[in-house]
């Protein structure tokens, strides 16, 4: 075979971690052409990040390990050359910007790569200006990185890799903690880059709804192997259900819907994967859809107030208030989603509820009892709180001890405690991991464990801060099942999230914050239908709702629903 | 938390490179060590304050705000000296059993208290006038420290605010878990400390590994040198200040030795 | 596998250097926020008492040595830690670097003579030695006029303070880290 001209070329590539005999990445075959926009997806721990690190030569050159097979990146044989040579061909950006910077100022960070490569000083300053402009951050040269927002940091990270002028850009979950508008911004920047400069883009993501319109190629990994690789349309046309149910992937909503429609016997000429494509076929779809009737979502919670906040005000500094005269009331047994842009005060609000931050004025009433002046230790017997990074909450050395920990204060006997631990382990499906150290668990397991530690305290309210960040569909669903179960038992859930799907599917009510002000409080349907009136960028309309908007644009044809699941259910029930 | 950071400043002293300033700083500590005369120590202290206010143009509020700490530390030194002083006392003010407070011990205490002030205020001058990125530059370009090592220092600087936020988060998480109620007594306190330290170090090490990977993938350490994008010139006065303090220190030492006033203990 | 790769041989790799940076940063924060106030308060009672919590200044240095386990790592952590402490406005100023050097020297010698094996007694020895060398500087710079007995007692006390307080605590934390799977004890 002649020399392969593309960007990335792997044949029979295997990789084993240091101190491990068996390869973790097994027989990987990938070829990516110049200028392609590629997404790698797959469940947690399937080896996506590991593969990305292999592509830039970090494994095995820096972190050790052993490889076999062919691996060529930008025409270079990764085995034969040094990491610095690869770095001019392929650059990588990671999920958490904070841990990948090592300079204090923006311009230094962008100049860092070229400086290492001994590029001339004058050229470096040109590059810094050029690439900062490219990512929409001109005039930010002398800002401190620590003072930027999450989205801006992510942009700096991208610019700093671009400044090395690579041919291939690899991004490992670059938007996990960003709000939808920040996400959209980053994706658009990337697409612009890809179109204008012919940069090859390899993006690792779990949720690919908004991305799928840009993508040339989709690679799906599972357990260190590539299980699917090709055009997204073909993959989703044939494998949607399998990918979702067997591998636990986030299959884009429209793809799920299209797949379900084809299941009913209908056949598309061109399998739609975006809203645009879907509604283009609405004429032929009408007969199929119009006869379906979605069921009304029942309000499955009691109309009793669990938590009431009146005129709450809080500011980190006394001059400027962040939260201003916030009032809300939350029904018992419901799931409340708190949404808002990055920095709009969601975490701050929840910290005020639990008492970790002391509100400057206002009252908090829990179950018709004023808890404004109660200490955190009192409040947290009734309010559970799951932090964004579950690692922080672990105290003991094993999963079982961790669950039992909160029960130590109570007067239960050892036997009773053991029973509760066993039950809880079953609820969160962590049986068999009793003896593992909490910090060695996977992300989804950690999240479930941190919920378990709160379940045993039998809280009336459970607050979750961005529980879905970085989770795959299977783990996310798993977690939501537990939460729904708790809800049935009367626990009220307050969930801070950026994930539209979770809100659309599970939330009974949404509270939207904007710069510390409440701008919306009501049902998710009302929120998503009135996004224009509320004028917020913090929320993305659910894909399915966009479909309904088009269908119903000339008069109401059918009842809308927010997630593909409901519509699919209606289709099947027909 | 870092109360005394760099404050942008274009004074003469601020322009001096950090290496010369470091030698100046060490020179002062050495000189202060040679001085046993409280009056001389006081003069040295005044010189540093004047230098800080005039040559370095430090904002007095920032400069003097740290002095309470020096005062506490200095007072402790003073007390210890008068209690534990072991030399001959020419005059004893006060004696209770074994404990005696005499003239020499008292003078020594004052001297050491002033030494705390000298050492502290000179360091403060250094901190407020030195920008971390200038320090890195000087370490690499002037002191010949390999840039990988200089960068480790810079990275540490970047980690401090991150670790601080992390520590607060971890503490909050523990409060919510009710650790403060469960762990009581000294053993409990130690356990709490461990519960704080371990996740902090774990997340710190993870972050370190992550940044190391990010840096290596950007060709960090590929070549023995790297481009320096900014340049600084060293004003001549920098060398003057550095060298003069050492000349003063050494000549004072010689003066002491010649006059038989110096005894190494 | 066929193409076994050798790690790029560097005395301290980037990963090592950044780990050291993090540990030194944590140590400097610990020293200036927690330990220094305690030490200062206890100093009024007696330097022999304040030395016990004071030995914890060495915590970061020992952790650096235990985690990185390469020649010079301990010393580098100590110097970095000292420099950072000085920049935090520690009243000891430039002496902080000297203390760092002292800490590093003692522990480095102890660690290297045991060929960087992570064992509890080696950790205790290294902590003890590091504390002694640092407190030696105290004797010269601040306490030069004290009686000989005081000085001997001071050094002996500092050795025990270092090896018991700092050695055992660092060892405990190291073991906990090991169980959490972030460091390994080969
Ligand atoms: N140095 C190592 N030694 C042994 N196993 C490792 C090492 N690093 C990672 N692993 C394991 O390899 C697996 C794959 O990890 P990887 O980070 O590549 O997954 P991923 O697909 O990126 O998952 P996620 O979506 O959660 O980011 C994990 O189970 C992890 O525990
Ligand atoms: N400890 C603090 N001191 C001062 N300001 C703070 C502090 N913590 C947060 N802020 C500021 O308060 C604002 C709200 O922060 P908060 O963390 O509540 O936002 P958020 O809505 O949770 O955002 P995200 O989606 O990024 O988690 C931000 O502008 C932030 O910079
Ligand atoms: Mg990953
Ligand atoms: Mg938040």
Automatic annotation (TrEMBL), chain A:
<dbReference type="GO" id="GO:0042626">
    <property type="term" value="F:ATPase-coupled transmembrane transporter activity"/>
</dbReference>
<dbReference type="InterPro" id="IPR027417">
    <property type="entry name" value="P-loop_NTPase"/>
</dbReference>
<dbReference type="GO" id="GO:0016887">
    <property type="term" value="F:ATP hydrolysis activity"/>
</dbReference>
<dbReference type="InterPro" id="IPR003593">
    <property type="entry name" value="AAA+_ATPase"/>
</dbReference>
<keyword id="KW-0067">ATP-binding</keyword>
<keyword id="KW-0472">Membrane</keyword>
<dbReference type="InterPro" id="IPR050095">
    <property type="entry name" value="ECF_ABC_transporter_ATP-bd"/>
</dbReference>
<keyword id="KW-1278">Translocase</keyword>
<dbReference type="GO" id="GO:0043190">
    <property type="term" value="C:ATP-binding cassette (ABC) transporter complex"/>
</dbReference>
<protein>
    <submittedName>
        <fullName>ABC transporter related protein</fullName>
    </submittedName>
</protein>
<keyword id="KW-1003">Cell membrane</keyword>
<keyword id="KW-0547">Nucleotide-binding</keyword>
<dbReference type="Pfam" id="PF00005">
    <property type="entry name" value="ABC_tran"/>
</dbReference>
<dbReference type="InterPro" id="IPR015856">
    <property type="entry name" value="ABC_transpr_CbiO/EcfA_su"/>
</dbReference>
<dbReference type="InterPro" id="IPR003439">
    <property type="entry name" value="ABC_transporter-like_ATP-bd"/>
</dbReference>
Automatic annotation (TrEMBL), chain B:
<protein>
    <submittedName>
        <fullName>Cobalt transport protein</fullName>
    </submittedName>
</protein>
<dbReference type="Pfam" id="PF02361">
    <property type="entry name" value="CbiQ"/>
</dbReference>
<keyword id="KW-1133">Transmembrane helix</keyword>
<dbReference type="GO" id="GO:0043190">
    <property type="term" value="C:ATP-binding cassette (ABC) transporter complex"/>
</dbReference>
<keyword id="KW-0812">Transmembrane</keyword>
<dbReference type="InterPro" id="IPR003339">
    <property type="entry name" value="ABC/ECF_trnsptr_transmembrane"/>
</dbReference>
<feature type="transmembrane region" description="Helical">
    <location>
        <begin position="63"/>
        <end position="85"/>
    </location>
</feature>
<dbReference type="GO" id="GO:0006824">
    <property type="term" value="P:cobalt ion transport"/>
</dbReference>
<feature type="transmembrane region" description="Helical">
    <location>
        <begin position="140"/>
        <end position="160"/>
    </location>
</feature>
<keyword id="KW-0472">Membrane</keyword>
<dbReference type="InterPro" id="IPR052770">
    <property type="entry name" value="Cobalt_transport_CbiQ"/>
</dbReference>
<feature type="transmembrane region" description="Helical">
    <location>
        <begin position="105"/>
        <end position="128"/>
    </location>
</feature>
<feature type="transmembrane region" description="Helical">
    <location>
        <begin position="236"/>
        <end position="258"/>
    </location>
</feature>
From TrEMBL, chain C:
<protein>
    <submittedName>
        <fullName>ABC-type thiamin-related transport system, permease component 1, predicted</fullName>
    </submittedName>
</protein>
<feature type="transmembrane region" description="Helical">
    <location>
        <begin position="12"/>
        <end position="35"/>
    </location>
</feature>
<keyword id="KW-0472">Membrane</keyword>
<dbReference type="InterPro" id="IPR017195">
    <property type="entry name" value="ABC_thiamin-permease_prd"/>
</dbReference>
<dbReference type="Pfam" id="PF09819">
    <property type="entry name" value="ABC_cobalt"/>
</dbReference>
<keyword id="KW-1133">Transmembrane helix</keyword>
<feature type="transmembrane region" description="Helical">
    <location>
        <begin position="152"/>
        <end position="174"/>
    </location>
</feature>
<feature type="transmembrane region" description="Helical">
    <location>
        <begin position="47"/>
        <end position="68"/>
    </location>
</feature>
<feature type="transmembrane region" description="Helical">
    <location>
        <begin position="121"/>
        <end position="143"/>
    </location>
</feature>
<keyword id="KW-0812">Transmembrane</keyword>
């Amino acid at each position: 075979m002649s020399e392969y001209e593309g960007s990335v070329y792997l044949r029979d590539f295997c990789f084993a971690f240091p101190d491990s005999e068996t390869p973790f990445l097994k027989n990987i075959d990938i070829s990516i052409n110049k200028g392609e926009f590629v997404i790698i997806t797959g469940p947690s721990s399937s080896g996506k990040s590991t593969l990305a690190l292999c592509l830039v030569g970090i494994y095995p050159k820096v972190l050790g390990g052993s490889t076999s097979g062919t691996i060529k990146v930008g025409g270079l044989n990764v085995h034969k050359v040094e990491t610095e040579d690869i770095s001019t061909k392929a650059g990588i950006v990671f999920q958490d910007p904070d841990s990948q910077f090592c300079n204090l100022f923006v311009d230094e960070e962008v100049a860092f790569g070229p400086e290492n490569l001994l590029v001339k000083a004058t050229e470096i300053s040109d590059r810094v200006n050029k690439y900062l402009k490219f990512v929409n951050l001109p005039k930010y040269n002398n800002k401190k990185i620590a003072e930027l927002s999450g989205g801006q940091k992510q942009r700096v990270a991208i610019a700093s890799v671009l400044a090395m002028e690579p041919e291939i850009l690899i991004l490992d979950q670059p938007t996990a903690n960003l709000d939808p508008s920040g996400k959209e911004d980053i994706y658009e920047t990337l697409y612009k880059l890809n179109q204008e400069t012919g940069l090859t883009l390899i993006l690792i993501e779990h949720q690919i709804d908004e991305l799928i319109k840009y993508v040339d190629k989709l690679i799906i990994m599972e357990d260190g192997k590539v299980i699917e690789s090709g055009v997204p349309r073909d993959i989703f046309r044939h494998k949607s259900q399998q990918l979702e149910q067997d591998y636990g992937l986030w299959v884009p909503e429209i793809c799920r819907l299209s797949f379900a429609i084809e299941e009913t016997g209908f056949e598309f000429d061109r399998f739609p994967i975006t809203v645009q494509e879907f509604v283009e076929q609405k004429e032929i779809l009408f007969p199929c859809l119009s006869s379906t009737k979605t069921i009304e979502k029942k309000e499955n919670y009691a109309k009793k107030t669990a938590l009431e906040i009146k005129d709450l005000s809080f500011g980190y500094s006394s001059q400027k208030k962040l939260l201003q005269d916030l009032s809300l009331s939350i029904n018992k047994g419901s799931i409340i989603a708190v949404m808002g842009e990055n920095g709009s005060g969601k975490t701050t609000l929840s910290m005020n509820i639990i008492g970790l931050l002391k509100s400057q004025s206002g009252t908090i009433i829990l179950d018709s009892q004023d808890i404004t002046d109660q200490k955190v230790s009192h409040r947290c017997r009734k309010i559970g709180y799951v932090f964004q990074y579950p690692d922080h909450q672990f105290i003991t050395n094993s999963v079982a001890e961790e669950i039992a920990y909160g029960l130590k204060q109570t007067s239960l006997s050892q036997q009773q405690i053991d029973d509760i631990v066993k039950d809880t382990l079953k609820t969160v499906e962590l049986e068999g991991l009793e003896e593992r150290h909490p910090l060695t668990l996977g992300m989804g397991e950690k999240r479930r464990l941190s919920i378990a530690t709160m379940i045993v305290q039998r809280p009336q309210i459970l607050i979750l801060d961005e529980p879905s960040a970085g989770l795959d569909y299977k783990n996310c669903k798993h977690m939501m099942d537990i939460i729904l179960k708790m809800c049935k038992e009367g626990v009220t859930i307050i969930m801070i999230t950026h994930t539209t799907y979770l809100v659309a599917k599970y939330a009974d009510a949404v509270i939207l914050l904007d710069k510390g002000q409440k701008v919306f409080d009501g049902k998710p349907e009302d929120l998503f239908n009135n996004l224009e009136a509320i004028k917020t960028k913090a929320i993305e309309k659910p894909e399915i709702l966009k479909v309904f908007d088009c269908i119903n644009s000339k008069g109401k044809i059918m009842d809308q629903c927010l997630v593909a699941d409901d519509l699919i259910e209606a289709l099947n029930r027909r | 938390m870092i109360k005394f950071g760099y404050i942008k400043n274009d004074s003469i002293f601020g322009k001096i490179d950090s290496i010369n300033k470091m030698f100046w700083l060490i020179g002062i500590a050495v000189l202060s060590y040679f001085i046993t005369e409280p009056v001389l120590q006081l003069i040295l202290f005044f010189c540093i304050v004047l230098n800080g206010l005039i040559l370095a143009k430090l904002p007095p509020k920032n400069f003097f705000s740290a002095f309470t700490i020096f005062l506490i530390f200095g007072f402790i030194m003073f007390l210890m000296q008068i209690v534990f002083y072991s030399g001959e006392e020419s005059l004893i003010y006060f004696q209770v059993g074994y404990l005696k407070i005499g003239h020499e011990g008292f003078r020594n205490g004052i001297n050491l208290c002033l030494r705390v002030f000298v050492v502290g205020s000179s360091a403060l001058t250094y901190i407020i006038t030195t920008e971390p990125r200038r320090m890195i530059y000087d370490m690499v370009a002037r002191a010949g420290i390999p840039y990988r090592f200089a960068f480790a220092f810079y990275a540490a600087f970047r980690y401090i605010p991150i670790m601080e936020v992390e520590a607060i988060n971890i503490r909050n998480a523990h409060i919510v878990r009710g650790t403060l109620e469960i762990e009581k007594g000294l053993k409990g306190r130690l356990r709490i400390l461990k519960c704080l330290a371990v996740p902090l170090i774990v997340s710190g090490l993870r972050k370190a590994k992550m940044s190391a990977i990010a840096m290596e993938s950007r060709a960090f350490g590929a070549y023995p040198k790297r481009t320096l994008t900014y340049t600084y010139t060293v004003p001549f006065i920098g060398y003057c200040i550095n060298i003069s303090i050492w000349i003063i220190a050494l000549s004072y030492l010689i003066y002491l030795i010649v006059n038989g006033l110096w005894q190494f203990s | 596998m066929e193409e076994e790769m050798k790690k790029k041989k560097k005395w301290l790799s980037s990963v090592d250097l950044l780990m050291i940076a993090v540990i030194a940063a944590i140590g400097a924060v610990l020293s200036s926020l927690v330990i220094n106030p305690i030490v200062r308060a206890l100093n009024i009672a007696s330097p022999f008492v304040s030395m016990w919590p004071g030995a914890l200044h060495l915590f970061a240095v020992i952790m650096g040595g235990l985690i990185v386990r390469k020649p010079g790592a301990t010393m580098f952590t100590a110097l970095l830690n000292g420099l950072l402490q000085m920049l935090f406005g520690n009243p000891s100023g430039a002496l902080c670097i000297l203390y760092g050097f002292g800490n590093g020297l003692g522990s480095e010698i102890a660690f290297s003579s045991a060929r960087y094996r992570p064992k509890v007694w080696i950790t205790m020895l290294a902590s003890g030695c590091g504390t002694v060398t640092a407190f030696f500087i105290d004797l010269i710079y601040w306490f030069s006029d004290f009686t000989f007995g005081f000085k001997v007692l001071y050094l002996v006390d500092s050795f025990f303070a270092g090896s018991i307080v700092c050695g055992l605590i660092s060892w405990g934390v190291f073991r906990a880290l090991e169980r959490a799977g972030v460091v390994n004890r080969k």
